[in-house]
Write a structure and sequence with these properties.
β5 (about 290-295), α17 (about 305-310) and β6 form a beta-alpha-beta unit. It is built from 23 helices and seven strands. The chain is about 60% helix and about 5% strand.
């Protein structure tokens, strides 16, 4: 927490935790024979995948004890009154959800209730008095993400859907596609259309009627208050918003002007709301209450001057909200909900994925096998999948030509 509020090097503080890197670090110091490393990687990943996404009651108890131990150590090093402080602080928060948090929550649709990390986080926050907000900008990003994911599915997966294994699907850059294939693998969903229908009518995905339908679902399901872009704009300087948006586009942080403008508007809108609500001069010991709740970090590289100007940051990471919740719950319902989420789990990335260009090229190669009989295609895909699994830590950084040569699928 001290690191979070300090000006320490963000490249160290905000480095993503990637499980595959952790596994690789452990294996590099092991005495396992080189020929056996690939099998060990595969087995360890499968075990941890089940712990994080299909946990047993005992595993959840173990993770909860680790989480409580961290909180206990933190409070022992500080004043016990910090518990009361955080308990009161939660009710002062107004958090604008990032699109990444919402999309992650959508991807958990078919996980067991106990394993729905983001959804449980949002429910715990609401029960603790945190005011959750969603702006037009974020709704637009979530809706665009669903539409783009639908195009991705049709362009690269539809024709070969029956041959996509979990080990191939895991390399997709789209979390909803990965979630779909994982759920389909255990017969929780049958079709892509049925999966999308859980959030918005499939036929409405490609037209503007879907945006309003999605908004109603998100507001109802996650107990959100919707804030129009115009309101955020009224608290912002238009030229400063445009300047930041242009910077995001020029540095390839955002691919489209609209998405860049949305992010810039949210950043400046948060500072504007703090000023409007006099959050820095109200005599409160709880500090700022308005934040952007997101795992995004890249935008911060371009807002250091803005942070210095306002003498405060604008992003709250989900892990920090969980730390607050772990100290504040007073209602039994909140404690039960919090018992299924752990600070160490929210911010993790399970593994590296193939570069998108290489992954699409692999899928195109599978399509070229369409003239083969189903049994032959299944055998080829199975072999390809095993190769990807056993060599994934090397091929991630190679060009497609190098991957193609390694896989020998010409």
């Amino acid at each position: 927490m001290a690191s979070f509020i300090s000006d320490a090097d963000s490249s160290v503080r905000e480095k993503e935790l990637v499980i595959s890197d952790c596994i690789e670090d452990v294996l590099s110091f092991s005495t396992i024979k080189p020929n056996d490393l690939a099998d060990y990687r595969s087995y360890i990943e499968k075990i941890l995948n089940n712990v994080f996404y299909h946990s047993t009651e005992n595993q959840r108890k173990y993770l909860l004890q680790l989480s409580k131990t961290y909180v206990l150590l933190f409070t022992l090093k500080a004043d016990p009154r910090i518990v009361d402080y955080f308990s009161s602080m939660c009710s002062k928060f107004t958090l604008f959800l990032g699109s990444d948090i919402i999309v992650k929550a959508l991807s958990e649709r078919y996980l067991n209730k106990e394993d729905q990390q983001c959804k449980n986080l949002l429910q715990s926050a609401a029960l603790s008095g945190v005011k959750l907000r969603m702006s037009t900008a974020v709704l637009e990003e979530v809706y665009t993400h669903i539409r783009n994911t639908n195009y991705e599915f049709h362009n690269h997966f539809r024709a070969i859907e029956n041959y996509i294994t979990k080990d191939i699907a895991r390399n997709s850059s789209k979390i909803l596609i990965r979630a779909y294939f994982y759920a389909k693998d255990v017969s929780l969903v049958r079709t892509w259309e049925g999966f999308i229908n859980q959030f918005v009518s499939y036929d409405a995905v490609s037209n503007n009627s879907g945006r309003e339908e999605l908004k109603r679902y998100l507001v109802s399901e996650y107990n959100l208050t919707f804030i129009e872009n115009e309101e955020l704009a009224s608290y912002s300087n238009a030229s400063e918003v445009k300047e930041l948006a242009d910077t995001l586009v020029e540095n390839d942080e955002k691919k489209h002007d609209v998405l860049a403008l949305n992010s810039a508007l949210l950043v400046h809108g948060i500072y504007g709301l703090r000023f409007k609500n006099n959050e820095s001069n109200n005599g409160s010991p709880f500090g700022y209450g308005t934040w952007w709740l997101t795992n995004q970090t890249r935008i911060q590289k371009h807002t250091s001057a803005l942070v210095r100007k306002n003498s405060s940051k604008y992003i709250m990471r989900p892990e920090f909200l969980l730390n607050f919740l772990s100290l504040s719950p007073s209602a039994e319902q909140v404690r039960r909900t919090y018992g299924n989420i752990f600070p160490s789990n929210i911010g993790i990335q399970f593994g590296h994925r193939l570069k998108e260009e290489a992954f699409h090229a692999v899928l195109r190669k599978v399509k070229e096998w369409s003239d083969y009989e189903p049994g032959r295609v299944t055998a080829l895909v199975s072999g390809l999948s095993d190769t990807l699994k056993s060599d994934q830590y090397n091929i991630n950084e190679q060009s497609w030509e190098g991957i193609k040569e390694k896989l020998e699928i010409d």
